[in-house]
Amino acid sequence: MERAQDRIPQRLRALPSRLVNQVALSANRLVDQALGAAGLRRYHYSLLAALAEFGPASQAALGRRTGIDRSDIVAAVNELAERGLVERSPDPDDRRRNVITVTAAGGRQLEELDRLLSGAQDELLASLNVAEREQLISLLTRVADHHAAPH
Amino acid sequence: MERAQDRIPQRLRALPSRLVNQVALSANRLVDQALGAAGLRRYHYSLLAALAEFGPASQAALGRRTGIDRSDIVAAVNELAERGLVERSPDPDDRRRNVITVTAAGGRQLEELDRLLSGAQDELLASLNVAEREQLISLLTRVADHHAAPH
DNA sequence: CTCATCTCAGCAAGACTGAGATGT
DNA sequence: CACATCTCAGTCTTGCTGAGATGA
């Protein structure tokens, strides 16, 4: 019989790449939980956020802005439309496109999701004070930007 | 036609949970690339590291120490054994178990993987100086530990 | 003709579940 | 008997690719 909690190798515990993955896992768990309280998922929030910030858009543009694959946008928009949070209508200027628009209910839902998400971030960073949170965000942003850059 | 690079919503860019995910993605890409140079994967490194630090172990113990699922250990150990990096032999004290042992070649391979991985971490954190790297690691460790704790 | 858009069908990898065979 | 171990088969989810239909 082995000890209940086996120790994790130091080589692994110290690896930044692994640390970041663990934190990402916790983050995803907390965020999924929070958004799940509203019956929605991460990509729903991404879509609503993109629509709220940049206004009505084609599904292709939404895909580029949120990083959601072209193939998956269809179903996600369907789900939002079924709940009355967005409307899909043909673009009169370019009949290949659907223009997606947030409804009033969608706007209210987004505010609610913002509150839920903000709570999840607080939980995630609960062990850090305000200055430390800002520092972590700043460092992560620099690392992320460095690799997102047009190489 | 849309602009080539669509802007990402500020709500998303600012979210710590999202930042951490982006960084984790870059980390995984770099690490996979580095280990791929030796023809191995992340879980192979985890296994070799666990064996090197805690000595020969059963497959079940390896699973607990590395977080690899019991079902996936079998194949991973097979792959390492085929390459002659570990040996699988029946445990004389408990005949349900296989005892997995690192070979000399496995030890050398681990050192090589350590070098490759260390290079990947450097690439990942290239935009930070040494003090900043330590700070990031310390903050991430605190966040990770806070959520890993036996709640 | 070319390219973009929307849509669907299907693949591949990863994380997991269930269950059987063996042994403690 | 309950439980641990090793193994295989199969499921589910996610991110992606390919291709067809429509239209600019």
UniProtKB/TrEMBL annotation, chains A, B:
This is Regulatory protein, MarR. It comes from Nonomuraea gerenzanensis. Residues 1-145 form the HTH marR-type domain. GO terms for molecular function: DNA-binding transcription factor activity. SUPFAM superfamilies: Winged helix' DNA-binding domain. InterPro entries: HTH_MarR-typ, MarR/SlyA-like, WH-like_DNA-bd_sf, WH_DNA-bd_sf. Coiled coil: none annotated. PROSITE patterns: HTH_MARR_2. GO terms for biological process: response to stress.
